[in-house]
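ARCHIVE CARD
CATEGORY: sequence design from structure
SOURCE FIELD: tokenized fold
FIELD CONTENT:
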């Protein structure tokens, strides 16, 4: 066994070297709780011939990260291994690394493809000595494992596919890219970002210092014109912006409605839906920055538009495909008048903007006057009850989480850009509120301040202050450093203002807008972490006050810094006439008086003399990626859970809220049992009796905090936010009453963004399914080893071991029809263990067949079977000896099935111990696992066949007395329990050939779970076969299902199975019959029947019509070759 070193040399494996390296990286960690030797042992179990040292480090880091739930120090070790690995593979010198990136040659084309801009390269080389000396590489080790992996995957620059940047290199590249020749400011920015005080947004981190330095995050567009030219000019602009990593918000209020007259062609318009399908396909095709992030467009429409009902259907999962555009995001731009009409149960008129122009161009009293005028003139295309439209909005939100809710009048009334004209939309994430026109595309550059960093220990100088504080236990000796927040806010303001000047704009309209109005967007991350560090429950009065104080500080010092810039560079071009130019600041628009923390009178005086350089300043945005990098919770949101899963190449593992884990560990309460209870409670601490009440209050999740309180905190900070905020609403079980109450609360409180996404909990929590409920009752004094040996392991071991023993015995007692068969079986002793009901298992656990949770469970199941079959066979071998031809086999050489697939098993089972057992005892059976068809035996046990998805949710069964319809028992049970099942629904299922997709009565979450094999991508089915293939030492009976097979589809699929390394590429090709006989006698009139038809009549009618049904699929259980 050898490893390949980084320089290409081969060297025998020395396990003690692996252990020594991990011990060296464990400096300062708890030797009692973080065991590098244990990590090393697990790594050694995954070593195979020719593994590289880089791959060993990657495996070691993943292994340590997977053990984080045992003790927080494993997270530190994981990060150190990963960072050390990158450092060994990259150059230390920043300037030398920049040279390599600048001299990059594309390996395919042979053309020079510099990754660094010419001017930035010259600046760096000219100042190489100083810049190199400023970088502190040890700060790379302060990232946590997942933050570092996020950087490595998407942010650090690569040369020919290989990462060449270190995190510190990236931060210095970004700093110089922003400040150019101003080296002092670049170095200041570098140190603040390097110490994790703040971070610029993803596009800035991606592109700063590169030849196409598009650093802006958000673009807002309005339709150029209601014409083919205008629509396609807008579409082109969206595509060009998306190519450059910009998220887009586009308003379409002025596009004429369906059926409206087109004078140029004497025809009628098709409305917004076909147009949006073209935008949908563009978003899919043009991703952000060449594969870094998917393209993303949000589309805004006012609710008076005549196509509003079609608009609300576009993202739904069911319905005709030509009426859907599911890759776009949708937002409503809601005038106050609509809310008033809903509240009073009044009528609401729908207009075509071509026939009732100007409604999108005014707000407030002007809008109400024009709207009423058009109503009086009879220009409405349709009049509905306002509440009818309201309930359609709520229906869409419950099903899809959208549309976003933004209040047009608040957005305009409280905007410092109101002097420019009517603002018509927000951006992709609802926090940017800026003016757009056909000649101006609004832009915003973003950064987020890492609030947990400002929590300080009392009486500890800043220079000696720890860079990371974790947990709530020391909160009484901590405070929030507002002075440092003021300093960092000023720097962030200067940086974002500079980006406006150095930015590469993808379209000229964007440059025009940004240069004229110079808006920026300062946000935050880690507000929930900040409250935890200070020992404050999220909804406590102390947290609510701190929330206000933080945003008051940010707004004050952003204004102050912008005014200071204006003294040198002048105000932005359109400053005169703005509210700020009249002395009206954001708190004035909310009728709020700021606190006495800062000198607002002096600031107002400064602004009256100097003005400000930026029209807008504060915009708390979502911070999913950058929060992950810095190890904080997202933006200003509460934690959604205290426990969640992370997937890496070696598998999936549990991660616990680092603060909670730290607190419980320090209190001596953390144990595998407690972890299991947290999983069982879906990450909630409320019902875990071991956790003290004061910690329960601090660690409540968003599902346990009143959303009205979350909204009120958004209102509290809203008077210091001159753009808006990405306010998600979390409801466990949303309904119309709750949503209506909440939406009206956000509107009446004056929020600009009433709702970004509606987040609701999944019907089932996959992470919970492998919890051993017996462990939830275990005594705390049981040893850790015993705790981890849960009943799940024992059950898996017992069943698989029993099957292995049985099949091995059959070899000896069997009657062989020919002597050659007996000779072979006695010599090699192969057996074949399969499964049935995998699809049923997924259904019982609430997992769609092609979900990531189901794919993980598929792997876990077959890993368990193969492991325990090997273990049982080895135990038999200790008594009866190995099979006759064992010597020379791969297993005799220590090569198991995963090794042949270059796959490292998970940490679920002790593979190192198993390998040791096999090396001593061998195994009794040459082959063990062979998932076969199970048509007959599945029928006997009432399961779906082997590992296949359901082919239909309704089918016919023939008995002596005739033929009758059978429904998927799980679906029937669910629909009956929900009160949805009826003969009419059965008829609809038959009419849809057993598919639930187009049956509107069935909820979307059930549709996802009960999709049939015809609605699941066969590539996914193949990939799941590959995932379990590394634990199958025989092969598997893999059927391929194609509705309408053709040469192209089949060729693609066969090559996919071959390249993925499957043994059996295809068993049968199953295609649907051209016609479905079971469907022919359905009474289509019944599909529209009213629910008040009597039950007896329904049953009589449907039974009569089903009498002559014929099965459309072959009865496979009649075939013995499929009947195991």
């Amino acid at each position: 066994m050898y490893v390949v070193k980084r320089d290409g040399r081969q060297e025998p494996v020395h396990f003690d070297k692996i252990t020594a390296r991990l011990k060296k990286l464990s400096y300062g960690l708890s030797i009692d709780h973080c065991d590098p030797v244990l990590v090393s042992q697990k790594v050694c179990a995954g070593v195979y011939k020719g593994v590289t040292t880089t791959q060993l480090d990657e495996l070691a880091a993943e292994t340590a990260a997977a053990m984080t739930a045992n003790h927080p120090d494993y997270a530190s070790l994981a990060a150190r291994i990963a960072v050390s690995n990158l450092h060994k593979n990259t150059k230390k010198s920043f300037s030398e690394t920049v040279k390599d990136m600048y001299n990059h040659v594309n390996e395919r084309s042979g053309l020079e493809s510099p990754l660094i801009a010419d001017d930035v390269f010259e600046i760096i080389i000219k100042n190489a000595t100083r810049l190199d000396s400023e970088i502190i590489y040890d700060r790379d080790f302060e990232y946590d494992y997942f933050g570092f992996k996020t950087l490595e995957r998407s942010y650090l620059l690569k040369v020919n596919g290989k990462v060449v940047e270190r995190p510190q290199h990236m931060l210095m590249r970004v700093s110089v890219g922003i400040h150019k020749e101003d080296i002092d400011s670049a170095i200041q920015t570098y140190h603040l970002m390097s110490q994790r005080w703040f971070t610029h947004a993803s596009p800035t981190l991606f592109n700063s210092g590169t030849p196409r330095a598009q650093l802006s995050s958000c673009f807002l567009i309005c339709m150029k014109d209601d014409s083919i030219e205008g629509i396609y000019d807008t579409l082109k602009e969206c595509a060009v912006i998306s190519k450059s990593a910009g998220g887009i918000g586009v308003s379409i209020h002025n596009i004429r409605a369906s059926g409206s007259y087109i004078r140029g062609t004497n025809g009628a318009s098709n409305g917004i839906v076909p147009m949006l399908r073209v935008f949908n396909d563009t978003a899919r095709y043009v991703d952000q920055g060449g594969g870094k992030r998917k393209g993303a467009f949000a589309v805004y429409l006012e609710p008076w538009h005549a196509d509003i009902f079609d608009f609300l259907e576009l993202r739904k999962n069911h319905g005709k495909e030509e009426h859907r555009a599911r890759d776009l995001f949708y937002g409503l731009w809601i005038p106050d008048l609509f809310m008033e009409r809903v509240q009073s149960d009044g009528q609401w008129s729908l207009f075509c903007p071509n026939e009732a122009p100007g409604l999108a161009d005014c707000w407030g009293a002007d809008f109400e006057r024009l709207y009423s005028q058009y109503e009086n003139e009879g220009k409405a295309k349709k009049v509905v009850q306002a509440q009818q439209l309201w309930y359609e909005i709520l229906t869409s939100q419950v099903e899809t989480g959208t549309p976003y809710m933004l209040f047009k009048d608040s957005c305009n009334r409280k905007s410092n850009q109101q002097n420019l004209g009517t603002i018509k939309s927000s951006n992709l994430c609802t926090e940017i509120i800026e003016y757009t026109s056909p000649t101006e595309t609004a832009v915003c550059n973003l950064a987020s301040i890492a609030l947990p960093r400002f929590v300080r220990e009392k009486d500890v100088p800043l220079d000696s202050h720890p860079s990371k504080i974790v947990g709530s236990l020391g909160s009484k000796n901590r405070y929030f450093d507002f002075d440092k927040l003021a300093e960092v806010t000023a720097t962030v303001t200067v940086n974002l203002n500079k980006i406006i000047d150095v930015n590469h704009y993808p379209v000229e309209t964007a440059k025009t807008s940004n240069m004229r109005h110079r808006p920026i967007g300062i946000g935050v991350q880690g507000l929930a972490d900040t409250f935890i560090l200070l020992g404050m429950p999220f909804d406590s009065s102390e947290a609510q006050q701190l929330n206000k104080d933080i945003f008051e500080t940010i707004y004050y010092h952003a204004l102050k810094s912008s005014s200071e810039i204006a003294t040198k560079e002048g105000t932005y071009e359109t400053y005169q006439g703005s509210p700020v130019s009249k002395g009206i600041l954001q708190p004035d628009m909310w009728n709020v008086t700021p606190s006495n923390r800062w000198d607002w009178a002096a600031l107002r005086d400064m602004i009256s003399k100097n003005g400000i350089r930026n029209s807008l300043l504060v915009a708390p945005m979502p911070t999913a990626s950058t929060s992950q990098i810095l190890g904080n919770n997202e933006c200003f949101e509460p934690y959604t859970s205290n426990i969640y899963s992370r997937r890496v190449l070696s598998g999936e593992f549990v991660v616990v809220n680092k603060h909670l884990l730290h607190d419980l560990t320090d209190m001596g309460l953390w144990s595998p049992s407690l972890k299991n209870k947290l999983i069982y409670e879906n990450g909630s601490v409320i019902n875990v009796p071991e956790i003290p009440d004061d910690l329960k209050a601090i660690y409540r999740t968003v599902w346990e905090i009143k959303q009205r309180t979350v909204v009120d905190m958004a209102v509290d900070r809203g008077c210091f936010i001159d753009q808006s905020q990405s306010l998600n609403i979390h409801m466990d079980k949303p309904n119309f009453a709750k949503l209506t109450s909440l939406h009206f609360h956000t509107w009446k409180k004056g929020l600009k963004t009433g709702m970004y996404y509606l987040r609701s909990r999944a019907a089932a929590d996959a992470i919970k399914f492998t919890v051993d409920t017996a462990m939830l009752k275990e005594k705390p004094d049981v040893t850790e080893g015993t705790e981890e040996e849960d009943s799940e392991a024992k059950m898996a071991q017992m069943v698989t071991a029993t099957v292995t023993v049985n099949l091995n015995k059959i070899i000896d007692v069997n009657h062989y029809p020919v002597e050659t068969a007996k000779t072979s079986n006695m010599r090699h002793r192969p057996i074949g263990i399969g499964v049935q009901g995998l699809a049923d298992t997924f259904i019982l656990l609430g997992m769609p067949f092609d979900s990531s949770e189901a794919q993980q469970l598929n792997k876990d199941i077959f890993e368990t079977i193969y492991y325990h079959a090997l273990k049982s066979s080895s135990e038999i071998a200790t008594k009866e000896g190995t099979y006759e031809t064992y010597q020379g086999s791969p297993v005799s050489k220590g090569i198991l099935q995963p090794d042949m697939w270059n796959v490292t098993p998970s940490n679920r089972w002790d593979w190192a111990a198993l390998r040791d057992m096999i090396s001593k005892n061998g195994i009794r059976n040459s082959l063990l696992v062979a998932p076969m068809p199970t048509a007959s035996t599945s029928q006997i046990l009432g399961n779906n066949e082997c590992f296949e998805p359901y082919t239909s949710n309704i089918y016919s069964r023939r008995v002596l007395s005739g033929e009758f319809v059978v429904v998927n028992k799980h679906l029937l049970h669910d629909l009956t329990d929900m009160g949805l099942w009826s003969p009419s629904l059965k008829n609809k299922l038959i009419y849809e050939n057993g598919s639930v997709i187009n049956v509107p009565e069935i909820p979307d979450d059930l549709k996802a779970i009960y999709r049939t094999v015809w609605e699941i991508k066969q590539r996914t089915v193949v990939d799941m076969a590959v995932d379990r293939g590394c634990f199958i030492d025989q092969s598997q009976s893999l059927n391929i299902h194609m509705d309408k097979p053709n040469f192209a589809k089949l060729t693609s699929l066969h090559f996919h199975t071959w390249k993925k390394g499957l043994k059996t590429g295809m068993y049968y090709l199953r295609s649907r019959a051209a016609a479905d006989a079971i469907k022919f006698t359905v009474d289509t009139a019944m599909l529209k029947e009213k629910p008040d038809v009597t039950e007896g009549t329904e049953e009589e009618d449907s039974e009569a019509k089903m009498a002559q049904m014929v099965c459309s699929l072959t009865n496979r259980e009649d075939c013995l070759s499929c009947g195991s």
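CARD ANNOTATION: Residues 2-171 form one domain. Residues 541-569 form the longest helix (29 residues).
SHELF: design records, drawer C
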